[in-house]
Give the backbone structure.
Amino acid sequence: MFRKSLPVLVALTIAGCANTDMSDLKQYAEEVKSRPPSGIEPIPEIKQAVGFIYQPRNRRDPFTAQVDEGQPDETILDAGIRPDPNRRKEELEAFSLDSLRMVGTLEQDASTWGLVQTADGTIHRVVAGNYMGQNDGKITRISEEKIELIELVPTGNGFLEKEVALALGEE
């Protein structure tokens, strides 16, 4: 029944939209045409920049690096510590340490595992030697209170080892 009446409904809808009276449109077009033309504003005048000639006299050249002769050159500290680019990244290295939370430990035989929860609620089991955090943090020790790591923090001249810990219940 609906299929038979659909073409009739479409035809009536289209017929209802057809309005041949365009007097209001013609009236608006005539009104716009009768308006006086507006003028185009002139281009603004460009002001000349005042030049400056640099007279060095006793001053230093502003385009060369300044060297302070009273202080020795900065020594570059680089102990040769670098992250291993060939090491396969572990899952917890995708998270910053701030977003990870230690929720407990597991002990079996002589092994101790740390339980770490991510922001999405997933709990991961880690052991000493695993990596976590975004600064190549290697787990060195797991106790009931905390997980200790050594991170490689980038400096301007290389990397610096930094000891950090993730405490139980810490967010």
DSSP finds two helices and seven strands in the chain.
